[in-house]
Amino acid sequence: MFSSISCTMNVQCNEKDMNTLLKFKQELTDPSGILSSWFTQHYDCCEWFGVHCDNITGRVIELNLPCHTIPSTYTERDDKSNCLTGELDLSLLDLEFLTYLNLRNNDFKGIHHYNHKCNEMSSVTPHPNDECVKFSNLSHLDLSYNEDIVIGNLHWISNISSLEYLNLNGINLHKETDWLPSLAILPSLVELHLDSCRPQNIYPLLQYVNFTSLRVLSLSENGIGSKLPIWLFNLSCDISYIDLSKNNIFGQLPTIVSNLRSIKFLDLSYNILDGPIPNWLGKLGHLQELYLSDNTFTGPIPPSFGNLSSLIELDLNDNNLNGSLPSNLGKLINLKSLGVASNSLT
């Protein structure tokens, strides 16, 4: 008889991955010492703060280093004196098994990419060498609220074909004129967050965009200042979440909005939309949250809203609506919040 012997393998960090992380650290200033465990004597980088490795291979698969700040009472920006700062070196993405990267709310001042395979430095503003930027496994990328970063070219992101979640909220994109084509070719992208990015071109006349997998699109606080772009409602996917609030969008709601058959969340608040609220909005049967407040809509509340059986929140505050509340709104058994203040309703 053979006796069974069990053993536990202590898989340690891959040396190549460790060197990539150390190079990333060298570019940074770390005022609060959150990377104090990142040093060569502590040779297992899988135990470093913010690093998560695959239990079997020892390869780095996640890097989670957001900065936690307390909102400032006196200034528009949070105090980031404790956050990572310096140049963000995208050679970090040479971690070939990295799937999750979160550097949210730090204080990075710029981005550059060094690729040892190409043996050259490339600034992502304005012309990185796209052939040197090839990533295959990253699915989650969050660089949001690093407010000092200005990105003039997003072509490097186009090569991350596995990307499912992208959050660039608060990143300045005003120099990037081709942001939409660069992102629309990402075949796996499910969530796209570009709040407060100030892109110069919103492509108001573009008819179609081939977002094949997109479900969540957030473009609030970008000062769009045009009519609703047509492409938003001709997306080649069943999008469920759209936020276009605080954008100075004007004009009437076009009929093409009714194409959003799967929409659950629609926020068009704090714009300059006018005219009557169209009756066909009541055909969007999956709607759970509808925000139309702080516009200049006129006329009555459409009685078809009583057909929105999934509706949980309806905000029509601060418009120029008149007439009376449709009686069939009382049939909406899921409705938790109804806002109709600052109108001329009877």
TrEMBL record:
UniProt keyword NADP present: no
First-listed, main subcellular location of the protein, grouped into a coarse class: membrane
This protein's GO CC annotations: membrane
Compartmental location: Membrane
Pfam families for this protein: LRR_14, LRRNT_2
Keyword Cell inner membrane part of the UniProt annotation: no
Residue ranges annotated for the Leucine-rich repeat-containing N-terminal plant-type domain, each copy included: 15-54
Boundaries of every Disease resistance R13L4/SHOC-2-like LRR domain copy: 205-341
Superkingdom of this protein's organism: Eukaryota
The name this protein goes by in its record: Uncharacterized protein
